[in-house]
């Protein structure tokens, strides 16, 4: 008789993974071992002890594994901007929220480093990353537009959003190049330089 539920047979090996975080870690281990391009969704699902359908309940694609819960993090970022007091200057608020956006628990630091290495160095991820960068810039531009009382699509908010992403990427690259460096300190310093340039 055909199966009438949506459950999938358990596979031998590692116990079934039941969280996005576990699935990300398993995928990152496979990317390290086999390379991103040569690792398939089937490989990740097999290593996690789940089926393809279960994988796609967590992530729309292999590329999305690398970005993790990015949409959720952007929602938190929006809330952070909304909670900034009106008395806080625009660029100070931007620095505060972006630095906080990049804080991760110590236990997740090595995974965050690996995530950024993949995002910044894997050619196959660049097109997907462009879309994600646009989402990030949109959140920043919306905040800047609100503070400046102009449309988020106008020049100043867009310039601030693009510049903020640029200095953030520069900080990420410095962090990846020096294992002794602190990402929060690098972002703070880079965004202070940006604020001095915009003078807001």
UniProtKB/TrEMBL annotation:
Q: Work out whether the entry's keyword set contains tRNA-binding.
A: no
Entry's Gene Ontology molecular function annotations: DNA-binding transcription factor activity; transcription cis-regulatory region binding
Q: Which residues form the HTH tetR-type domain?
A: 17-77
Query: Which Pfam families did the record assign?
Result: TetR_C_14, TetR_N
Answer whether the UniProt record assigns the keyword ATP-binding to this protein.
Answer: no
Q: Which UniProt keywords apply?
A: DNA-binding, Transcription, Transcription regulation
Protein name as it appears in the record? Mycofactocin system transcriptional regulator
Q: Which stretches does UniProt call biased (Basic and acidic residues)?
A: 1-11
InterPro entries linked: DNA-bd_HTH_TetR-type_CS, Homeodomain-like_sf, HTH-type_TetR-like_transc_reg, HTH_TetR, MftR_C, Tscrpt_reg_TetR-type
SUPFAM superfamilies in the record: Homeodomain-like
Provide the species name. Amycolatopsis antarctica
Region annotated Disordered sits at 1-20
Which residues form the DNA-binding region?
A: 40-59
